[in-house]
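Dear support,

I submitted the protein below through the web form. The confirmation email said the job was done, but the results page showed an empty box. After a refresh the structure appeared. I'm attaching both so you can tell me whether what I see now is the final result or a partial one.
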Amino acid sequence: MSRTRVPSEVRERVRAAAAYRCGYCLSQQRYVLGIMEIEHIIPLAGGGTDEEENLWLSCGLCNRYKGTQTSHIDPETGETVSLFNPRLQKWSDHFCWDATGTRVVGLSPTGRATVIAMKFNNPIAVEVRTGRVLANWHPPEDIP
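What the results page shows now:
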């Protein structure tokens, strides 16, 4: 959660713009225990601001794994690339779901680096997604 004070009306606009789901793993607010967090795409520690264009919605797990990271190494090319920006980039250009719908697959250098940096396929996330798949709640049909 932000250590700074982001006005409630800005928080609500960000939530609505994000369609009430995590910009990274696409978890929907209605299936997450707890309120999703307003995340700084460029962290305050890295020179980011509380301006609305630097904020997006994130589940707690993604927000904590991202931390202050803004880039990571693409395992395929060895190049350091920027992490996925849910405000400016289209999820489906960088990621897709595997055949089971439980694991995120990186399709681009940004996607591959983000999958690793943010631990998208950690055991907890995969286990939760497995339950959501069984409940027919996942993967989301309206992937951005």
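Response: this is the final, complete result; the empty box was a page-load delay. The CA atoms of residues 90 and 144 lie 6 Å apart.
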